[in-house]
Amino acid sequence: METSLLRPEPRPRREWPIAAGLLLLAFVPALAGAFRVTEIASGATPTAENARFMQMPLPVVVHIVAALVYATIGAFQFLPRLRRRHNAWHRFAGRYLLVPAGLLVAASGLWMTAFYDTPAIDDRAVAASRYLVGGLMLAFLVLGAAAIRRRDYAAHGAWMMRAYALALGAGTQVLTSGPPMLLFGEPSELARLLQMDAAWLINALVAELVIARRRAASRKPATMTA
Hints:
Number of domains: 1
Helix content: over 70%
Low-confidence stretches: 1-12, 222-226
Order of helices and strands: HHHHHHHHH
Mean pLDDT: 89
Radius of gyration: 20 Å
Distance between the termini: 8 Å
Shape: globular
Structural class: mainly alpha
């Protein structure tokens, strides 16, 4: 008898910490969004910071609510064991909740970049980055939906992971922008651009690493057991 038969089966890795980490990353932007919606609903006094939201509240409310739905549902869509056990929910949530919410997040973000009277520090380079990220997120969602229609599950998961990574950029921006602001005060236009772009790049790189690992795992030959 082979010794491999005497070894206990390895315990599957717990996946819930992944969802918890993603939810934690989205927590601060969600908290800020809840504050903004409360501010709008209560009719707060317009200031230089919130005047654009008070004058035209619909786009930012759509963006905040859709982002909350997208971040929350998306945190559980990438857990393989949960997906296998509740495949019907995975498909329902992706088709009727996650993809529509993601499209609203990207579209409303692009709209606000184009039409809101943003601070001068966000007018040029940062705005260009937001246009690029919003456009890529829309494209990734469309490509992910097209992939699942042709039953290309690997491509579907990869495109959806890329879109989700960009959407969570706001959470990572808390980490890339918060400490420098505490240490050095308000950033320059270049520093603001670097801080914002660093968050999107970090998320995109992490997503590509996960996608590459999944591809490598799927190509491993199946091992035979006695």
